[in-house]
């Protein structure tokens, strides 16, 4: 593995030489004093470069750099930042401390997008930001993790809004030499790997991003050896058509594994962050088949080392390709592995649609899978129930790890200063410690409001600037440009809404009753204003219509200066918004927002969430830390829309506005709620907690299983694979042949002392054929009304007596009122200590089924 320190190639004066390291380590992006250091080198250029320190260093002339290297004030700050940077890189970490004996763990995190900072535009929205925040916390915590992604020459599009609200997407060619990335070099040349595509090979260049302690490797196809069309493969994130998409996913998955090998990296955990990256399992399968492993052993080996996170219940979010397309693009792979072609296709086949589905591929090749909030876990278990035969949705082996955000990235420096003053010194390291967050209580209301008001002022300035630029570019009149200076009142209750303009997020919902909204907004004593921002995918016309509609409303007389639509939502704007508004509005169709993270960013800055009980908010809301829109139902969309609309206006009129304006000098009750919000949400919805959960619930067990499976020449992998085959082939012989639930038995078989009037004994006989009873679990399943819903209960049955003629008897004590048939059933399922979860073999024999 390459571990040389990365540097910007431009020579710098010796006294400030290490800026060349700092500029290329994304650590700068979550350290305000590092950002400040760069900004003050030349504030205007800093803004011009889009906060890109590498470009800044290139753009500054030698005289300026020389002057800075002789500027005592600058040098003092420089040294402070560098010593903090060194301490960060060398301090002991949570992982060393807690899991120091697991030095063998090596995680590879594959994602089609990473959002680290606005200066590296390889993200489109929540998925990318999550990946970036994940990598940052992994570094903070010392998790041995490398990332794998794509480097898009033109990034994601830049959004311009025209004078009638139309969205225009612009693309720029980024100069890779001036991004905060570095080529991976090998003997002086740019390191490449080659992947096979139909009829040709494609050369991919490997780049690296330093994120604190960890590296992210990015692949790019813009290499001279490639034909012009192939050079464009990695031009744009989510650009092009289905062909581009599948080719990009091959580059990411297959090219990504090859890149790791070229760098000598052999992870024992492969984390597929959304189905896009699932082809990585096919490259690993190929490697193992080439080693001579039988197909079923190779699949078990791959599965033992794979973790999959699914991110959306929206069907369009799951990539599917026709089988013909897969056969074409994976042609070279199938050529090499022709015997296994059908078996490989079967790994991704969706039987209902006849399509190859990347989520299916990931589900079938990952030992552990999870959704991104408790509710999304539940929704995913319903969605993918059929992967595991006839079992209750709650048993489907898909867990959930609720998303979080990187606290240091998203919390305003002003807030961090307050926390530094009033919380124990360990608050950053121990973000999950609820106890220390209680100390927010003692921060004086004045201090909180001062910080909040300042951030709001900053936002208002930023928003006006954004709109002025729109208007100037659109050639609007001087008058129209000048009036923007009066837009947005820094003292008014300010509500923010910013996210991708996917239709299910219903950006225009607040406008459903314009008359009622007008009344709300126009109260001179209690003004309310809204700030909107968000990009619609260039192919999403309904999404672009929403932008146009909001823009049109923002131009209506009653709403001028009170409803604004900003252009080009990115991480920079996101920070202003989530730090500067009073309320963060989120009203998706439930349950389509798998988690959502912008509200978590807002919460950390004392901004109150006003959201549908979807995604993370369903578990985060406690009645005191924000507001819940509508109910927890998942009614018909039209009904939901009506109910949610009513609920939004009602809560605004009756709760939010009165609470905000119930103030003398300071809105104490509002601030009290801000405190409740920070105390309850900051310790939970941060990526430290999230990455710790991933580590302990998925990475560690997966690394251990992966090592176990390959040890001793794939001994356990072979055992598991053969075992599964044997069980599958013989399961048809497993039959439950006799059940006795007469309570009369009780008196004869249970000692009197153990008789509880409410229990009785059930016995059953199971015929196993050649299968060992010890390789199965025999269980009683029944349902109990817990007041809200029918909840599944499971009681394990114990074997009694000897195995006779392949038949084994079992018994268990059950609640006395249950009667077999109408009330309970018995089931048998195969088990193994080497399974990652209870239903790795979706074979269940049951006496009846409620499904
Ligand atoms: C946080 C963030 C998102 C994701 O927000 P959601 O609430 O999940 O929609 C999208 N885009 C940007 C720029 C962000 O910072």
CATH-derived architecture of the largest domain: 3-Layer(aba) Sandwich
Compute the number of helices: 31
Beta percentage is 15-25%
Q: Name the CATH homologous superfamily of the largest domain.
A: Glycogen Phosphorylase B
User: At the third CATH level, what is the topology name of the largest domain?
Assistant: Rossmann fold
Q: What spatial form do the alpha-carbon principal axes imply?
A: globular
- CATH level 1 name of the largest domain: Alpha Beta
Mean pLDDT: 95
Amino- and carboxy-terminal Cα gap: 51 Å
Strand pairing plus helix content: what structural class?
alpha/beta
**How many domains make up the coordinates?**
4
Protein name: Starch phosphorylase
Organism: Paenibacillus aceris
Keywords: Allosteric enzyme, Glycosyltransferase, Transferase
Family: Belongs to the glycogen phosphorylase family.
Report on the structure:
This protein is α/β, with parallel strands linked by helices and 851 residues long. Helix content is 41%, strand content 18%. It has four domains: 14-90, no CATH class; 98-153 and 181-400, Glycogen Phosphorylase B (Rossmann fold, 3-Layer(aba) Sandwich); 436-683, Rossmann fold (3-Layer(aba) Sandwich); 734-849, Sandwich (Immunoglobulin-like). Strands 1, 2, 5, 8, 9, 10, 11, 12, 16 and 17 form a ten-stranded mixed β-sheet that branches. The longest helix has 44 residues, at 687-730. The mean pLDDT is 95. Pyridoxal-5'-phosphate binds at residues 125-126, 129, 499, 569-571, 574, 596-599, 601.
């Amino acid at each position: 593995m390459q571990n040389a320190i990365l540097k910007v190639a431009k020579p710098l004066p010796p006294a400030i030489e290490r800026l060349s390291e700092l500029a290329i380590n994304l650590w700068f992006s979550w350290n305000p004093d590092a950002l400040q250091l760069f900004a003050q080198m030349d504030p205007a250029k800093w803004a011009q470069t889009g906060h890109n320190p590498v470009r800044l260093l290139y753009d500054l002339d030698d005289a300026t750099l020389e002057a800075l290297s002789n500027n005592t004030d600058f040098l003092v700050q420089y040294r402070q930042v560098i010593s903090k940077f060194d301490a960060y890189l060398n301090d002991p970490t949570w992982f060393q401390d807690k899991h120091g004996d697991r030095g063998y763990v090596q995680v590879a995190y594959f994602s089609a997008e990473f959002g680290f900072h606005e200066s590296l535009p390889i993200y489109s929205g929540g998925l990318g930001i999550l990946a970036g925040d994940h990598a940052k916390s992994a570094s903070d915590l010392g998790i041995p993790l490398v990332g794998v992604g794509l480097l898009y020459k033109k990034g994601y599009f830049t959004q311009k809004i025209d004078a009638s609200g139309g969205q225009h997407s612009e693309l720029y060619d980024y100069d890779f030499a001036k991004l905060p990335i570095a080529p991976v070099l090998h003997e002086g040349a740019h390191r490449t790997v080659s992947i096979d595509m139909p009829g040709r090979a494609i050369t991919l260049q490997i780049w690296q991003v330093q994120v604190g302690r960890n590296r992210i490797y990015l692949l790019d196809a813009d290499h001279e050896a490639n034909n012009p069309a192939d050079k464009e493969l990695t031009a744009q994130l989510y650009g092009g058509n289905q062909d581009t998409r599948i080719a990009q996913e091959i580059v990411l998955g297959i090219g990504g594994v090859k890149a790791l090998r070229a760098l000598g990296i052999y992870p024992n955990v492969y984390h597929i962050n959304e189905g896009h990256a699932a082809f990585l399992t096919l490259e690993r399968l190929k490697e193992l088949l080439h080693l001579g492993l039988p197909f079923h052993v190779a699949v078990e080996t791959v599965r033992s080392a794979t973790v999959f996170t699914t991110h959306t219940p929206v069907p369009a979010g799951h990539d599917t390709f026709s089988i013909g397309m897969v056969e074409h693009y994976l042609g070279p792979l199938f050529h090499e592995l022709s015997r296994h072609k059908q078996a490989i296709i079967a790994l991704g086949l969706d039987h209902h649609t006849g399509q190859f589905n990347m989520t299916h591929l990931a589900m079938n090749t990952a030992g552990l899978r999870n959704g991104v909030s408790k509710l999304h876990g539940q929704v995913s278990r319903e969605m993918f129930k059929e992967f595991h035969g006839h079992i209750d949705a709650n048993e489907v082996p898909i867990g959930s790890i609720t998303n979080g955000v990187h606290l240091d990235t998203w919390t305003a420096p002003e807030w961090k200063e307050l926390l530094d003053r009033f919380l124990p010194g360990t608050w950053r390291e121990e973000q999950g410690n609820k106890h220390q967050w209680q100390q927010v209580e003692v921060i004086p209301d004045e201090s909180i409001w001062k910080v909040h008001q300042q951030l709001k002022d900053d936002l208002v300035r930023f928003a006006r600037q954004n709109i002025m630029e729109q208007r100037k570019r659109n050639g609007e009149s001087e008058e129209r440009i000048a009036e923007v200076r009066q837009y947005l009142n820094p003292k008014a209750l300010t509500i923010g809404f910013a996210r991708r303009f996917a239709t299910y997020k219903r950006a225009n919902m607040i406008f459903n009753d314009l008359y009622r909204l007008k009344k709300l907004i126009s109260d001179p004593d209690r003004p309310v204003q809204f700030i909107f921002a968000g990009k619609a995918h260039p192919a999403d016309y309904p999404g672009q219509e929403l932008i146009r509609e909001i823009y049109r409303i923002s131009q209506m007389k009653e709403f001028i200066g009170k409803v604004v639509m900003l252009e080009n939502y990115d991480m920079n704007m996101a920070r202003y918004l989530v730090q500067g508004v009073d309320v963060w509005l989120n009203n998706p169709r439930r349950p389509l927002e798998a988690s959502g993270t912008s509200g978590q960013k807002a919460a950390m800055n004392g901004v109150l969430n006003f959201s549908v009980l979807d995604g993370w908010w369903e578990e985060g809301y406690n009645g005191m830390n924000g507001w819940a829109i509508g109910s927890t139902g998942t009614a018909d969309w039209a009904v939901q829309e009506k109910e949610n609309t009513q609920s939004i206006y009602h809560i605004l009129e009756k709760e939010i506005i009165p609470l905000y304006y119930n103030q003398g000098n300071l809105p104490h009750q509002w601030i009290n709620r801000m405190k409740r919000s920070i105390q309850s949400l900051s310790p939970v919805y941060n990526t430290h907690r999230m990455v710790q959960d991933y580590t302990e619930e998925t990475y560690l067990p997966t690394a251990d299983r992966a090592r176990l499976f390959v040890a001793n020449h794939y001994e356990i992998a072979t055992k598991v694979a053969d075992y599964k085959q044997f069980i599958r082939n013989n399961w048809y012989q497993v039959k439950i042949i006799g059940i006795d639930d007469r309570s009369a038995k009780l008196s004869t078989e249970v000692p009197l002392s153990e008789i509880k009037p409410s229990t009785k004994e059930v016995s059953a006989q199971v015929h196993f054929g050649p299968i060992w009873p010890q390789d199965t679990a025999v269980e009683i399943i029944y349902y109990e009304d817990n007041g809200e819903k029918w909840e599944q209960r499971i009681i394990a049955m114990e074997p009694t007596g000897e195995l006779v003629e392949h038949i084994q008897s079992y018994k268990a004590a059950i609640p006395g009122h249950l009667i077999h048939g109408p009330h309970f059933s018995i089931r048998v399922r195969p088990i193994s200590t080497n399974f990652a979860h209870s239903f790795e073999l979706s074979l269940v024999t049951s006496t009846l089924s409620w499904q």
